[in-house]
Design goal:
By secondary structure, the protein is mainly alpha-helical. The protein is built from 7 helices and 2 strands. It has a two-stranded antiparallel sheet with strand order 1-2.
């Protein structure tokens, strides 16, 4: 399915990849009214982005475990939390945003659950394509 936006056809993935994930994290972690958007469009957008960068679901799940064990600030400070520089920079931006926004009890656990959701969506996308490794071919 393609959507027309600003007179240029865009796929659903392109629209989702343009979603402002840091803003959804900033508001979704701290405000219940934005939680559905964070775990819906935000998680899908993050999964599309990471999948396009060739990130394996288990890598995102591992970072979620790091968030649970060491916290958002610790995870955001990792030199390269994902196997590639580009994917790491993207994830670090999200983690830094979440660390700055979070602070209430449960925010770190919520962020870890969000990362697990992102990993599951990446996994479903890969299974739907029959892919076992590598980024989506466009």
């Amino acid at each position: 399915m393609t959507m027309v936006h600003d007179r240029s056809p865009r796929t659903d993935d392109e629209v989702l990849a343009a979603t402002d994930v840091p803003t959804l994290l900033r508001h979704g972690l701290t405000r219940e009214t934005f939680r559905t958007a964070l775990f819906g469009d935000g998680a899908i957008a993050a999964a599309v982005t990471l999948d396009r960068l060739g990130v394996l679901p288990r890598s995102v799940t591992y970072v979620a475990k790091i968030v649970r064990a060491g916290g958002l600030e610790y995870a955001a400070g990792l030199a390269e939390p994902l196997p590639s520089r580009e994917a790491s920079a993207c994830l670090q931006d999200w983690l830094e945003t979440a660390a700055q926004a979070g602070g209430a009890p449960g925010d770190e656990a919520r962020a870890a659950r969000w990362l697990e959701t992102v990993a599951e969506i990446v996994s479903m996308r890969r299974a739907g394509r029959g892919a076992t490794a590598g980024p989506e071919q466009s």
